[in-house]
Amino acid sequence: MIQDGFILVDKPEGWTSFKTDRFVGGLLGTRKVGHLGTLDPFATGLLPVFVGKGLKFLRFCEGFDKGYSCKCIFGARTDSMDKTGEFISENYPTESDLDELSRTDYKTVRDAFLKVKAIKEQLPPAYSAKKIDGKKAYELARKGELPDLKPAPVTIYSLDITNIEVPEKGLAVDFDCLCSKGTYIRTICSDLGDITGYGAYAESLRRTINGQFSVKDAFTPDELQKMVEAGDFSFVRDASETITFLPEIKLDAKQTKDIMFGRKIAFPFDVKTEGEERIYYRATSEGKLIAVVFPAVEKGELVMRIERLYAHD
Q1: CA quadruple 118, 124, 126, 127: dihedral, nearest 10
Q2: Can you give the pTM of this predicted structure?
Q3: Cα separation of 231 and 188, whole Å?
Q4: What distance in Å separates the CA atoms of residue 106 and residue 101, rounded to the nearest whole number?
Q5: What is the pLDDT of residues 298-310, one digit of tens each?
Q6: Phi-psi bin for 286: left (phi > 0), alpha (psi -120 to 50), beta?
Q7: Residue 286 in this model has a pLDDT that exceeds 70
């Protein structure tokens, strides 16, 4: 049975990311599964799941930017910043407020979006998978403990309102967001609520983009189940696709042989190696991925160091 690569899953509401892993593992008959970018149970959408030898590519993808579509309700706050939490305050816009908002084309709300888009740091939600001394923040929050969370740098590339409507209570605003890793859409909703003074929470959340991948190419669990029953495993994709964003170094025959035997190879061009952050490259030969490498200085010489060798897989 095919079990090496990755699958783009359209996670349904109510499923945890780990339940999705187990489902995929069950379909392919393996326990070697892991997902890229955890999604909250109430959220839906794109969840890449790596399987078998595909797991060797997972860590190189953890910095991917993400895209989301969200429905934000203005007029109330919840302790989890989404619809699954307990309401902690309610301040719904009055009929007069809504009339004024409509008359000004919702300028107050649109201005709040502009302010949030400009932020450079964000405090993770208490109910999140952020780890504090080895424990997830939501585990502490559920015990009534206040997690010691610190602001983290984020980048919001775009934050665009797609629809505004007036439901039975509050004001509902749909928006799309493209952001860096570690950005919490629930926090964006909460910040929007604070700026407008009404409070706000996420009513729905759907991930649409993860790196170079789109939810348009993902499969629901039902679709995956039917494909497996039909003997169709075309949904399992080559995991090397996930690192095509890395700059490429093309190896000749001698370099390929040397790298496969762990021999020292001079780096093919000058690069800066200052700082602790490594810059990774994909080393290929005749279109085949051989290794992920990085430049390093050894005895005054710039050489190619192997981070991960794939040639023998």
Answers
A1: 100
A2: 0.90
A3: 43
A4: 4
A5: 888 899 999 999 9
A6: left
A7: yes
